[in-house]
């Protein structure tokens, strides 16, 4: 695993998802957690909220099978940005990132949403 000194910070909110994916692939759970503010909230999509960077670190240790593969566009509003991705299984994430005083970006809120399929789009077979 990489140590904190060698970790590239997010200079743009669009950097957060690729950094998360690359750190996941490297097995760097500490690096994944470092992408969140100290008091961030992660919604795992199961009705439970994970509060704080340490708890988010523990969450990522438990959730590796279905990580993000597709990065979507990012709307901005001042120092906030909305990020979203879709996994190969169809699960969707939604996050709010905030620009820090040094120009880097960290997630404030993160939500992992279960697969949502419109009933009309399901294959009846």
Task: Return the CATH class.
Answer: Alpha Beta
And the CATH topology?
Nuclear Transport Factor 2, Chain: A
Structural class: alpha+beta
Number of helices: 3
Mean pLDDT: 75
Sketch the major β-sheet.
7 strands, mixed
Report how far apart the termini are.
Answer: 45 Å
Identify the CATH architecture: Roll
Number of strands: 7
State the helicity in percent bands.
10-25%
Percentage of residues in DSSP E strands: 25-35%
Radius of gyration: 15 Å
Low-pLDDT windows of residues: 1-5, 65-72, 116-125
Tell me, briefly, the overall form. globular
User: Helices and strands, in N-to-C order?
Assistant: HHEEHEEEEE
Task: Give a written overview of the molecule.
With about 120 residues, the protein is an alpha+beta fold. The chain has a single domain (about 10-115), classed as Nuclear Transport Factor 2, Chain: A (Roll). The chain is about 20% helix and about 30% strand. The protein is built from three helices and seven strands, in the order ααββαβββββ. Strands 1, 2, 3, 4, 5, 6 and 7 form a seven-stranded mixed β-sheet that branches. β6 and β7 (about 105-115) form a beta hairpin. The chain is globular.
Features:
disordered N terminus, Nuclear Transport Factor 2, Chain: A, single chain, alpha+beta, 125 residues, disordered C terminus, 7 strands, seven-stranded mixed sheet
List the helices and strands and how they pair.
Layout: H1 16-25, H2 29-33, E1 36-43, E2 49-51, H3 53-62, E3 70-71, E4 76-77, E5 80-86, E6 92-99, E7 105-113
Parallel strand pairs: 1-7
Antiparallel strand pairs: 1-2, 3-5, 4-5, 5-6, 6-7
